[in-house]
């Protein structure tokens, strides 16, 4: 560590016979920084288990690694035993004998593992191929035989261009073709058309939210694999949006429907149920409604339960209708045979409604066996569960309460009413973002803490809820994995992460921080990455990384990661890197998250300034005269806003792919957080969030970047700021990626290097190496 610091200091001071001469950074300095990125650091963490996969209610498997070599571990919870499924190097030898051609066991990337424990055999997916192996040495692996027509159909159903959705029994897959819904038989590959009246821009199960579009079929299979819940999506009157390629000769143009904030016509859905056996479409007896969900800016939100949930007997479907502005949620139940719809209850809120947290998914559940709806709401300022009758829509009771949040459900036993949930903010003195696992009862009562370790916990339950794998860590301590019973007692330890090799490579753990938010009273939490070789007598430039929410914060997880983007790399170059979850972000109180409602132009930005100022009172080596900021997407928006609103504080900014004026962005996102567009003919409620209108305030150095093929945030959003800066006669820098979408793909490392150069030159006052190339290990 001392050697690294001395090398960096030497490169910064070499040739400085004259004190004013600019320090020079070398290729070696950048190489040491690059070695703090995930491709270099992640392989240096041993025994950090990140997931587990249940085979049945008693047995599961996980992957443990030691010096990069993976070992598949099998655990029997009832017997309290664990063992390696294979000796990895012997397995590799057997796979190579079959034609794999990989000599390094650390590069054995196992994509899937499907054991047949009764026969003591397993199928492995490695390098895109499937191998059948015995689970006793010498393993005698063989490449799986050429798939049958049905297997090919199954592969296409899960991986192919049709983006089909497999039924629960695995026998059929639904997909979209020519705006209609089809089903494929998995055994024979035979296809059958289910709907016939779908036409262009008025198709069935189509996936288009404007900012996101694909060929994926949006369907929810019934538990008996006989029905589909979906919709006919009407976007015929919605405005077109296009992106144009840059190439020699005529450009290619991709056009689709993309509604903006304030558009009169937005995407509407007409809900339907499709009886797959009968080929019958049952339209729900209700009007068309906006393309919305109770949580995210799409009609579906990630994996897991959605806003359409089947009864276990498939006779009814519970669903939620969301108003255009996300202020009104209507919970309904439809009869799957007649299409009749009953309204159960309505929740209205003054700001916006969320049914959970975006990274964990929708939290409400249809408990059909109990005839109840388990509803998640922040109506008392905290995220809690409320139990409603599915027959009458009447509130039965509030299940959880207090100044903490139910983060997400882990397991629900409908018959007993027992639940496992993850919760945040309940344990005194603990980081409010760390999740703990609790046992609760639908009858109410105090939650019981099952995971006493003061770290962030992830629980993976068995199918019957008798056990759960508990994986816990912090930003400083790697994952520990244990198996617990439902009462929280530890059945057996599984693995304990080890960062010995990572530390030897120069890695420094970030420091968890709590600083004053801009309101002067609330604490905002975050991370501080201290400069490598820190000398408290020196002053260090500060780089603030920001993502302003409201649906997520700057720090996506409090789980351990060997690299948080390039924060560690920038710290290695000599910057202090700060990440703060400001006001307006989730997992605190509803008032905390609502703080910037209708004033989204400031979203979380004032808290960056107040937080860094507060931090500098503790650490005098933070140089408040040299503060930079950067972010991507919403963070790009916030970066430009910071440079324009606080030009005397933020001196250097890098705004990547920012949605700088959300009137040029999808309707569903900002209409939720800022409200529907309102105008008096002269001013609108969206004027305060338009970065181009305050661009004239720029004093520092600003680099704007955007992908020309961005199909999420239109490039026009950045070009509005470019135009305003030019009109104001301001100097700035611009990087455009002709082939890039919202992320920069194969140019991501180029953008990262430009980012390092920009901060080194303009914030540190040094000279970066000429056109350093960041490449992955082995390239």
From TrEMBL:
The keyword Zinc does not apply. Residues 162-478 form the Dipeptidylpeptidase IV N-terminal domain. Residues 569-763 form the Peptidase S9 prolyl oligopeptidase catalytic domain. GO terms for biological process: proteolysis. Keywords: Aminopeptidase, Hydrolase, Protease, Signal. One of its GO terms (molecular function) is serine-type peptidase activity. The keyword Signal applies. Transmembrane segments: none annotated. Residues 1-19 form the signal peptide. InterPro entries: AB_hydrolase_fold (IPR029058), Peptidase_S9_cat (IPR001375), Peptidase_S9B_N (IPR002469), Serine_Prot_S9B/DPPIV (IPR050278). It holds the Pfam family DPPIV_N. This is Dipeptidyl aminopeptidase/acylaminoacyl peptidase. It comes from Sphingomonas trueperi.
